[in-house]
Amino acid sequence: MKRALFIITVMLISIAASAQQISKSFIANDFSGITASSIFDIELTKSGVESVVVIADKEVMQYVEAKVVMGQLNLNLNTYSMPRSMKKDLKSIKVKINMKRELSWLSLSGASDLVSSSSFKPATFKGQVSGASSVSGLDIECESAKISLSGASDISLKGKVNLAEYEISGASTAIINQDITNLSVECSGASTMNLTGRVINLEAEISGAAGLKLKGTGDNMEVEVTGASKLNAIEFIVNDADIDISGVSKAVVNVQKSLEAEVSGGSSIEYKGSPVINKASVNSISSIRKIN
Hints:
This protein is mainly beta. It has helices at about 1-20, 60, 85-90, and strands at about 20-25, 35, 40-45, 50-55, 65-70, 70-75, 95-100, 105-110, 115, 120, 125-130, 135-150, 155-170, 175-185, 190-205, 210-225, 230-245, 250-265, 270, 275-280, 285-290. The N and C termini lie far apart (about 80 Å).
């Protein structure tokens, strides 16, 4: 009996020891971009100092790689060298990043997450988020921004941009709270995008079973909706709109001055406001109508 208790105690101690978490600081200087693959859980802070601290299980830490190459911080988990048994029970690896420079590049893949409450003001910003990765709380103010989401990824973003290109595909979700001068949006697959802000000029393509929801104000809106997609812009007050819709799609808009519409298939447009209808092409099973 005593021997059995001794063996159990030793096993519990071994398990506890193997699951022990440790922290390790990596040397990282002069980086303005971050690339992370695998299962990193990143906390990003704009700071007067630069530091990268990784918190992981003791036996996993030796496989964590963090290094700066050409101004870009690369985070990687070397699973090729890792024992197969260790791969089965991997947990998220926490990384705390302080950076001095403005964030101009972000790439997340696998199941990596990034959270930030800091504001960044680069000249340009590019972001790629794929897999089951997530970005939350990022505040970007820049001249131009280009962001691509795919897989089952998601992003919440705020700030101010002059020229923006956002591409959302797969089952991705984007929540954007920004003021934008010129915006180009592509939503496809089963993706969804919710945008709140002042957008002066908006061009959008919505296809598949995607959805675009807008809230705020704008001057010009040109949207193409196909497949079984939806445009919900009832809370987006715009001066002029040009809507081309087909398939079994639906668009709801709020237009003040002028509206051009081409409606085909079994699709429909509903509009609020009292715009001048400059052009309206509607087939026998589609519809366009005014709502209160």
